[in-house]
Structures are given as structure tokens and as C-alpha cells.
Amino acid sequence: MIEFNSVAYGFDDVPVLEDLSLTIETGEFVVLVGPNGSGKTTLLRHCNGLLTPDSGTVLVDGTPVDEDLIAARSTVGMVFQHPRDQFVAATVGADVAFGPENLGLDRSAIDNRVTAALEAVNMADREDDRIETLSGGEQARVAIAGALAMKPLYLVLDEPFTGLDTPARRSVRSRLESLSDRGTGILLATHDLREVRDLADRVIGMRDGQIIIDDTPEQAFADCAELAIL
Ligand SMILES: Nc1ncnc2c1ncn2[C@@H]1O[C@H](COP(=O)(O)OP(=O)(O)OP(=O)(O)O)[C@@H](O)[C@H]1O
Question: How much is the ipTM here?
């Protein structure tokens, strides 16, 4: 379970999140929507300690994130908005191996994780490909594989469809669907609720750093239209 308890956060004393409380259950598929600047990315970055609350707490499976960053980062995988900014190596295999290598695993365990993560995103046998030669959709899937290689219980994705063409969106979407089916909790921020409405268990709508909708996809879709937050 990822828990936000009365979290407040500001940049340079400008408040962004205010008294925000939220619980995401293990295995849930939660979609986060809201206008530009409503605080979605800021919220997501608290899930694995990239940002620390000014007040309040964020807990992952009961442990405050800032008390055990390694545990939080192994449990919560993060896929950023522009996958290109996330890559640390020139080839697919080396990039996906980077996280497990930092866990100090032995080579065969690392290789197994890389193979499984690439299989999960339909990129098996592409380990030697150079990242710069991949399409946008393939890069998005490699970024997801990099997070999966840490065997996270939760996957947090910030606008994973941005800049992708239709086939690539479909492909990322179907990967997320199968991960969710296999029990990975997913928290995904998007501008386009339609894209993932049928995958979501629950939709959270934000405005001005606060949660104003927390409902089933059907109800939330209607509320988003009414509140003009999409
Ligand atoms: N590094 C930063 N320094 C100062 N202000 C920031 C920083 N990052 C975000 N902000 C501000 O915090 C507010 C929330 O931004 P955030 O990126 O969390 O919103 P968002 O809902 O993810 O927006 P978008 O949909 O455009 O990505 C905005 O007013 C933004 O300008």
C-alpha cells in the first residue's frame, strides 16, 4: 500500500500539494488526471523519495519513504515523462541492467532480471540494440523494463503516452494491462483518461494540488467533464 497522509509540498515556498491524503492498494490500477500544473508529477515524485514532504508522511508498505529510500526505490518503479532522459547506458541490455547492478546482485541474477523485464515489454532478444536506434514506443517500453528489472510491487508512470504514435500507445497500453493482470500496482498520470479508462480500477482527479475526484472510472469520467479538468 502507498499512503499519503496530509502531505504538503511547495517549491520555493510556493505551495503545490496541500494537505493531500491518498491510499493506493497493492495491485490497484489508479489513473491520475488533472490540468497542467495541478501537481500530478509532484505527487508521483513523492512515491519513491525523489521529493520529500514539507509536512505529512508518505509510506510504502508501512515504511516512511524517507526512512528507507532503497526499500522505496526497489518497491516503487518510476517511469518518467520523457524516457530519453531516463536512460543511463547506450544499449538496451546495459540500461535495463543498471538498476539490478546497483542492488549488488550477482551476474546471473542480473541477467535473469534483464531477460524477464524485456520479455514483459515484448522486447526479448533486443539487448544489444542501441537505444538511439529505437522508435519512441520501443524506448518507452525499455524505460518500463528498466523499472521492472527492480521487481517493483508498484509502477509509477508519468504521462507514458506522450509523443507516442498510435501503434506505440497500443503496445505500451497492452504491456501495462498484462502487468496489472499479474498483480503489479500501477499509478499512472495522464492527460487523456480515455486512453486508459477501461484499464483503471480507480481515477483520481487533481486541481491546484488537491484531490477533487476519487472514484470509479465511469463516474470520474463524467465528473472530469463537469469540472472541466480534462
Ligand atoms: N522544479 C520546480 N521548481 C519550481 N516550481 C515547480 C517545479 N516543478 C514544478 N513546479 C511547479 O509546481 C506546480 C505543479 O507542477 P507539476 O509538474 O507537479 O504539475 P503537473 O500536474 O504534473 O503538470 P503537467 O501536466 O504540466 O505535467 C506547477 O505550478 C509548476 O510550475
Answer: 0.96
